[in-house]
Amino acid sequence: SLYVSEYFSQSAQKLSFYSWYGNAKLFHFRVPEDTVLLRWLLQASQGKGPECTSMEITVHFRYGAPPVINPLGTRFPANATVRPSYKISITLSSAAQNTTFVNVSTPAAGDWFIAAHLPEAAGRIEVKGFSTPCPYMFQADMFVLRLADVPVLEPGVATPQTVISPAKPLHVKVFVPKHAASMRLELRSCTTSEQKACAVRVVLGSITLPQSFQRIVTCTGSVNCSLALDSPPWEKWLQIVVESLGAANASVSVEMLASFAACRPGSTSSILNFSSLNQSQTGPRPGSTGAAGSSTLPTGEASHNVSSQRSFCLQNQPVVREDLDVVSVRYRLLNGPSVPVHSTSPTLLLLSLNTGMDSGGSLVVSLLLNKTSVSLANATVVACVSAASPVLSLNATRNCSTAFFQGYPLSLSTSSAEAMLIVLYPQTDDWFLSLQLICPKGQGECDAAEAKVTVFAYLTPCFNDCGPYGQCSLLRRHGYLYAGCSCKAGWGGWSCTDDTKAQSVGVQNLATLLLTLSNLMFLPAIAIAVYRCYLVEASVYTYTMFFSTFYHACDQPGVAVMCIMDYDTLQYCDFLGSVVSIWVTILCMSRVKKIVKYVLFVLGTLLIAMSLQLDRRGVWNMMGPCLFALVIMIAAWVYHGVKRRHCYPSSWKRWVFYLLPGITLAFIAISVYAFMETNENYYYTHSIWHVLVACSVAFLLPPRDKHKKPWAWSQKLTCRYQICQNDREELYAVT
After folding, report:
1. pLDDT by residue (tens digit) across 168-224?
2. C-beta separation of 346 from 314 below 8 A
3. N or C: which end of the chain has fewer CB within 10 A?
4. What CATH number was assigned to the domain covering residues 315-460?
């Protein structure tokens, strides 16, 4: 055999601590056909700074769709199917790099996904620039070894094959046609080169993670050996591996025969179905019965269809796939949302999810039984949702499994007429919904019975749009798109339905009131500024108080939210007002000339506005203006002290009762803001920050000029009368 090796690589990604699915870094690879060996090369590394400690990286693998993970141990939504992902742990200790290999023999061809993340996030809010987090990098490379000339078995034709040695197994494949109900593989005339008893092991199917459904049979002696598969995957190549269990140098010759049992489908489609495509969904369909929504056929034709159902192994219902948006699909039944279900053969619906871009959402299947349509009270409608091939024997097994896939069962009855299934990140494939009527006393009891089941099926990015306490985010890795829920207000889970740590409505209202009303502490600072004739500073404080109040009213994660304008605008204005307030306060304390002060006010505000636009959360956007203003203030105070030949400010009362308390409050506020805030205590620690900053401003504002009286600015409003009085005095003097 001719082996071909291939190598696929993707760029390294910086890992994040896990709080929601968006923190997991996703890698997407495509394994080619006829691959016999897949090897993952996983490389993890960390920085060299003192902040880098021992860390455990969790890596998840899955075939067909992104892995469904739950590192936080939260609850999934009701009716959601959860199958644990295959995962490994990589530990980074003293070594700066770790290399791990993961081998998969005979992997399934198609999409493979890897997700990597760090442990749970601590929840601490870090100010950008105060600390340097340790970088943890992760890169996944893929090596594949595939056969270039895999022998093909022709159905119904016995083909001689040879296993050269136990070290070199035989790889063959056979194509499974559509509507194949079962497959049978036979091994005949098994002989060895040493004329000893023949012993081989046959493996059907490929490995998929997290679950693998390979079928293995061991054949010994010269007796013919066979293996039967029910519901093999339709329109796919089935890999077959034959391994010799004999001596090391002995070859094995065997004849292989693959045969299929065809399933004759019956279809209820007609020319009327296709004409309904051009009609509105809300409009009447030709021959519709209103609420039932199914076509009404003449009596003779209906009786003919019932009598001919026994000759079919399934009944196809035509389904139209309607693409709505990214990872958003709706399935329309041409005969209406209600489908007939019988006991003689299953009713089959095809839900196509094979575009390669459908596995990043959630497949929702909702069933509703029309109770009046079931003539037998104890009858049950059994349904099964499966991928690659449908389940065709619901009346016999009820286990909802195909040859290589474990499906998802559903059940309807008169006592429980509704059922829902949510498949999180469905794998890329054709999905099938099979429905059949089951009677407890035997199928003869309900041969003539019929049930009407209303089917709603759709693909959505996030189930229920993550609910009222979550936000559905569309994530991207190169050209692949997938969705995840980011929860808030203490809610958690895949769809933000886990209320274990959820905040009550009272706590949410309290948080909103604290974060908004704490800004009213700027009122004393505004009053003092106006009293001391600092009108520009008072205007800045008013601006800051207004936008900080309404920004935090809009920023709340729960139901107590009020946004008077766009969120981004409110956030920008709040950050701008906060930094400019510090800027003008320190410049006001410097006691420079008014013209210089106002020029610095304008220039500083313009530069601060520019820097916030570049990086809104950078620590130097606040620290830079503060340090520059402090330099100006110290230089001005030194100038005044040298000029007056004594310390400035000269009054010890000014230092003890105003400056030292104001500076202390400012340092405490910075400490709370930079080192104490977490996601849990944010609403009261940030409220303390508001109070401390507002109080420090009130203490730090310098006293008014000695030649100005309190509220002296109001006297300027009588300027016109003052001019008139002066004119009269001048006229009197001339007279």
Report:
1. 889 999 999 998 999 999 988 888 877 777 888 999 999 998 888 889 988 887 678
2. yes
3. C
4. 2.60.120.680
Residue pair 179/264 in contact (Cβ under 8 Å)? The answer is yes
CA angle 381, 345, 454 (to 5 degrees): 40
Sign of dihedral through CA atoms 146, 148, 149, 153? positive
Do 157-262 and 3-147 have the same topology in CATH? yes
Q: How would you label 360-389 residue by residue, b for 16+ Cβ within 10 Å and e otherwise?
A: bbbbbbbbbbeeebbebeebbbbbbbbbbb
Beta carbons of 7 and 24 less than 8 angstroms apart: no
SS3 annotation, 390-404 = CCCCCCCCCCCECCC
Cα-based angle 127, 130, 136 (whole degrees, multiple of 5): 85
Q: Rounded CA gap, 240 and 169, in Å?
A: 10
Check if the beta carbon of residue 549 is closer than 8 Å to that of residue 563. no
Q: What are 595-639's pLDDT values in tens digits? A: 999 999 999 999 999 988 888 877 777 788 888 989 999 998 898
CB neighbourhood size of 726 (10 A)? 10
Q: Which residue has the tokens 């310098």?
A: 702
User: What is the C-alpha to C-alpha distance for residues 402 and 662, in angstroms, rounded to an integer?
Assistant: 74
SS (H, E, C) 435-484: EEEECCCCHHHHCCCCEEEEEEEEEECCHHHHCCCEEEEEEEECCEEEEE
CB of 363 closer than 8 Å to CB of 351: yes
Tell me the average pLDDT across 80-107: 88
CA distance 578 to 498: 36
Q: Which long-range contacts (CB under 8 A, 24 or more apart) does 594-602 make?
A: 598/536, 600/632, 601/536
- Nearest-angstrom CA–CA distance, 501 and 513: 21
Please report, as a single letter, which amino acid is at residue 154. Answer: E
Tokens of 160: 């001689």
Query: Which of 33, 44, 27, 21 has its CA nearest to residue 98?
Result: 44
Residue environment code for 168-201, b if the CB has 16+ CB neighbours within 10 A, otherwise e: ebbbbbbebeebbbbbebbbeebebeeeeebbbb
Tell the burial category of 593 from Cβ atoms under 10 Å away from its Cβ (0-12, 13-18, 19+).
exposed
The structural architecture, per CATH, of the domain 505-700 is Up-down Bundle (1.20)
| pLDDT band at residue 376 using 50, 70 and 90 as cut-offs | low
Alpha helix stretches (DSSP H) within 675-718: 682-700
pTM of the predicted model, to two decimals? 0.82
CA distances, 632 to each of 483, 521, 534, 625, 731 (Å): 51, 27, 19, 11, 48
Per-residue pLDDT, averaged over 145-156, amounts to 91
The dihedral built from the CA positions of residue 66, 71, 75 and 81, taken in this order, carries a sign that is: positive
Quote the DSSP letter at residue 10.
-
Task: Name the phi and psi angles at 84, rounded to 5.
Answer: -55, 145
pLDDT surpassing 90 at residue 312: no
Q: Which CATH class is domain 3-147?
A: mainly beta
Distance between CA atoms of residues 389 and 235, nearest Å? 9
List, in sequence order, every residue forming a beta bridge with 31; answer none if it has no partner.
110
Domain ranges of the chain: 3-147, 157-262, 315-460, 505-700
Q: Is CATH 2.30.30.100 what the domain over 157-262 is classified as, yes or no?
A: no
Asked whether the beta carbons of 672 and 685 are under 8 A apart, the reply is yes
What is the secondary structure of 659-684 as a DSSP string? IHHHHHHHHHHHHIIIII-BTTTHHH
